[in-house]
Structures are given as C-alpha cells and as structure tokens.
Design a protein that fits this description.
Serine Threonine Protein Phosphatase 5, Tetratricopeptide repeat, mainly alpha, elongated, 0% strand, 3 domains
C-alpha cells in the first residue's frame, strides 16, 4: 500500500491533494498452495508408506530405489519448508529450502520442475522478508530452469513472472513490470482460460501499472476485467473484490464521476466492516479514501468526518507519528478549516442580504 503524497507535508493549509488516494494493490498473488505444482511422477509414485520406507535406514537395493529415496527426501524437505512458510517462520523456511536445494544437487537429480519449485519457494520467502533483490534472483533462476527444459512459452513460469512483476511494480519500474505482466497474461490466458482467479490477479496488477502511469482509461479496463472474474468466483462481497472497487472509485473521482465513485467506495466500507471490523487498517484506508472523494467534491463536512475516523484508527494502530496517521490528520484539519470558511461566508452573505432587505423596507 502506497501512502498519499501529501503525507509528508508540514503545511497547516493543504490544497486539494494531487494524489489519487492511498492505494491498496495486490502485494502478492501467490501462496504456498498455488505455487508451480505440476505433479512430478516421483510424487505420484510414492505413497506415504512407500516414502517412509524409502527414508528408513534400509540400504537401497538398486539404483531406482536410491533415486526414489533421494526424491522422497527432497520432497519431504521441500514440504517442511512450505509448512514453515505458511506459519510465517521465514528464516526456518529458508533453511529448509536450502537443505532441499543441497539435496537436489548432491544427489544429481534430474527434475527441472522440482528445482524450479525450490527456487520459487525461496523467492517468495525472501519476498516476504522484504529482500526483493534476493527474491528477484531466485525468480530468475526459476524461470531460466524451466525455459531451458521446456521453452519460453512454458506455462509453469507464470508464478515467477507474476511475483517478479509485483516487485518491479513496488520499485516503480513500471515499464519493466508491464512487460513482465503482459508475458504472464499471455501464458495464463493460454493455459488457465479466461475465468481463473490467478488471471484476475494479473489483470488487477496491470491495472495498477496503468493507474500509476495516469493511463486511467486503460487502468479501468483491466480493473473491470479483473473484477468480472473475481465477482464470478468469490462473489461481490469479498475483500479481494473491494480492492478493485476502491481503485476504480478513485479513478472515477479523478474523472469527476463523484456519484459512481461514492457508490463504489461505499461498497468497500461495507465489505471491510463486515470482514475486518471497524478497527483495522484496511477499514481506515477505506474511510480515508471516502474522505478524499468527498474532499474533491467539496463536501468538506463529510470529508472531515471520514478523515477524523480514519485518523483515530490509524493513530491507535500505527501511532501518532506514522505518515498515514499524519496524512489523515492534516486532511481532517484542512476539511475543518474549509468547512468553517464556508460557514463564515454563508453567515456574511446572509448578513448582507438582511441589511439590503432593511434598506429596501426603510425606503418604502
């Protein structure tokens, strides 16, 4: 999530913010359950009982058993690494991934897909640790391994491409990110079809790139394509759907479509309130962005209410000095100032009109 550009401002009087909103984008579309999981023949052949037997201390009777033993050992280490990743024990997960990688090379195994899976698993773990350079290096090894064996159009590289694109997007390398996601899109459409949640994630991130480049119509096109898939699969009241609604609402706000923007952002508030409660950062984000829409529409009393609520939550969860907290506070104060100025002008105009009426009556 990127924060608003005005967050670092020290001015007590803010102009209408030049940014489109706090932005919530897909940070990763991968989890342990949807890595490259083309099932290896060795995995299919080895039942749990067979694997345990092969891992026992009984010496292998022939080369095939030896190979199966190594594959079973490697698979066990890999699976343990993924379990640790799921438990957010990233350092331990990396140790297990490194053990599995060592086993692969030590045993001279020939299974490019398994090797690519290890690289990918290590990559997402480094990415979770915010070590983006290490993650990019592992994703590149994953892609190179699969392309060397199966060619550049092999669909198994989609996962590594997507996460590479996410890092490039976070690093503001929009041209590189767009190229990466476009390649992932082409491969995913060919292998997944047009109604898969993974493809929706790719569409969403392409939308984010266009959004960041101020290509708003293109961004809306891809947000809409993503939403159509997501709504069909998870329904229209799911947190991941709210992400698309929110980004579309902010674009509509920039295009002056305040009514439509408010309708979409209202859905975001309802979805996050139901799924996350009213004391979460995502709900505070939705409040803040609703405040941005109202502020842009010059509905300062309403924007003041939303910014104040967002500030209260952010202050509690992030602290008073966090830039997101100070951003909501500054915009609340600016909304209050403009509300007060408007009231003064209204009062002044009312006084002038009353004075004029008195003069006319005296003349009569």
């Amino acid at each position: 999530m990127s924060t608003a550009a005005a967050a670092g401002s020290t001015s007590s009087h803010l102009v209408p913010p030049p940014f489109r909103s706090d932005r919530k984008r897909n940070q990763s579309v991968l989890s342990a359950s949807i890595l490259n999981t083309n099932v290896r023949s060795a995995r299919e052949e080895l039942s749990t009982i067979e694997r345990n037997a092969l891992l026992s201390k009984v010496p292998p009777s022939n080369d095939i058993n030896q190979m199966h033993r190594h594959q079973a050992q490697l698979l066990t280490e890999y699976q343990r690494a993924m379990v640790l990743y799921d438990k957010v024990q990233f350092d331990l997960a990396l140790d297990k991934f490194k053990e599995s990688l060592s086993t692969y090379f030590k045993c001279n195994l020939d299974d490019p897909e398994m090797l690519a899976d290890i690289y990918l698993g290590m990559g997402i773990t480094y990415q979770a640790k915010n070590d983006e350079n290490s993650a990019l290096e592992l994703y590149s090894k994953c892609i190179d391994t699969l392309e060397a064996k199966f060619g550049k159009h092999y669909p198994g590289i989609v996962s590594a491409l997507v996460n590479t694109g996410i890092i490039q997007l976070n690093q503001k390398k929009f041209t590189d990110a767009l190229k990466t996601f476009m390649k992932a899109q082409k491969l995913a459409e060919n292998v997944l079809g047009s109604q898969r949640i993974g493809l929706a994630d790719i569409y969403h991130n392409i939308g984010v790139i266009y959004d960041e480049q101020s290509r708003l119509n293109d961004a809306m096109t891809f947000y809409d394509k993503s939403l159509r898939i997501r709504e069909k699969i998870v329904g229209n009241f799911h947190p991941i759907v709210a992400m698309g609604y929110e980004n579309m609402a902010q674009i509509l706000k920039e295009q002056g479509e305040f009514k439509k923007a408010t309708e979409l952002q209202s859905k975001v508030l309802l979805i996050r309130k139901k799924h996350l409660g009213t004391n979460s950062l995502d709900y505070a984000l939705a409040l803040h962005n609703m405040g941005i829409i109202c502020f842009k529409e010059k509905k300062y009393e309403q924007s003041s209410t939303h910014f104040q609520q967002a500030h209260k939550i952010r202050q509690q969860l992030l602290g008073a000095d966090h830039k997101a907290t100070t951003c909501s506070l500054q915009l609340f104060e600016e909304s209050e100032r403009r509300t007060l100025e408007r009231r003064k002008r209204t009062t002044s105009m009312s006084g002038i009109q009353n004075s004029s009426s008195s003069i006319n009556i005296s003349k009569n």
